[in-house]
Fold:
Amino acid sequence: MTSLVQKLGLSPSLAFHDVWTLDDPSLLAFVPRPVHALLLVFPVTSTYEKSRIDEDGPISEYTASGPGEEVIWFRQTIRNACGMIGLLHAACNGGAREMIAPSSDLANLVADAMPLDPPARARLIESSPSIARAHASAAAKGDTVAPSAEDKIDLHFVAFVKSAENNLWELDGRRRGPLNRGKLEAEDDVLSEKALDLGARRFTKREAEGDGNEMRFSLVALAPSMD
Structure:
């Protein structure tokens, strides 16, 4: 993951780190701070799908574009590309966006995507040679997040980011748009207790209260590099 986003233009001062727990402060302390984004990998279960459909039902399709958007959101139209979309959501929002190298592939992608509506942004991702090159390079190194489009996958990626307005956003290309999960304090990052309660812990709690048989969750944080 780290090599892919750095190849696209994210500063080498940022890297992805494994988060081994949602609850143990002694283990959470190993993650460098501030955390600019979280990527949660979770099982697509019947419990999750029911929750998603119920929540999306009354929500209108997201149509915003332009510099006034609080976050930039990419609709996923490529099968099994949720990992790539999650990486783009993590790297192109919040504090991480300020650490994208000027004139890099990632900077150009953000500039090109900003004025477009969600369908046009999706077409931009589909046709982007820089995204294809970065993914192929990462895959060759064994550092990839996207399987073949033909593979049957039951895991999904979602990103959590904090906006300049101190809102926690859940970004998932399968949803109708970005989801504002609530207000954070100015000093909170996305690994803070409040952010975890509003974000990643909601997923694990929902599954535990469902059939409780699918707890295959993993979490990585985009935070300062330790190199």
About this structure: The chain has a mean pLDDT of 92.
